[in-house]
Amino acid sequence: MRAPIGDFSDVRPAGEALDLLPDPVAAAVRHWAGPVPVEQVVFVDTAPDKADTADFVAAYGTGLLPFSANCVIVAGRRGGETRLAACVVPSASRVDVNGTVRRQLDVRKASFAPLEVAVGETGMEYGGITPIGLPADWPLLVDASLVDLPHVLLGSGRRRGKLIMPGKALSQLTGAEAVEGLGR
């Protein structure tokens, strides 16, 4: 099997890589539903020490950067209550936490969630968090530009490996909302 983008030596449908995915991601792949079939979600095996965007594109090709996305966990606070959410933006941009995210979550203050919270609440590894398999009650804010891409390269939930899927599949994930200007 060939990956729809990039040149990877170990490529397989995500459903055949469940043992390489953390439990929440594997469960989401197992129970995948929606207009984009799960067979279009592909796992590519990659080196864990190359998970960060700059290292990844240096090792696997700068041509992947326009298709690469990062998923970050944010914490919004209002009236003593903390609300967690996930934001997916192009890897070459930054999440507009103090503007767009704060307004979308209707909170007074928003910031990146502490590492231990992001890892503990998602069941995923820092540097590999993916929007697939996040807690169902979380808002999932997706930069609208990603939904139009033919393919998006995302973390797999671990630092080892990546997932590739059609951009339009991002909008079918639980809690997903396409947001203009999420990444700047």
UniProtKB/TrEMBL annotation:
Domain spans labelled YbaK/aminoacyl-tRNA synthetase-associated: 69-170
Domain of life where this protein originates: Bacteria
- InterPro entries under this entry? YbaK/aa-tRNA-synt-asso_dom_sf (IPR036754), YbaK/aa-tRNA-synth-assoc-dom (IPR007214)
User: What's the protein called, per UniProt?
Assistant: YbaK/EbsC family protein
Q: Which organism is it from?
A: Streptomyces litchfieldiae
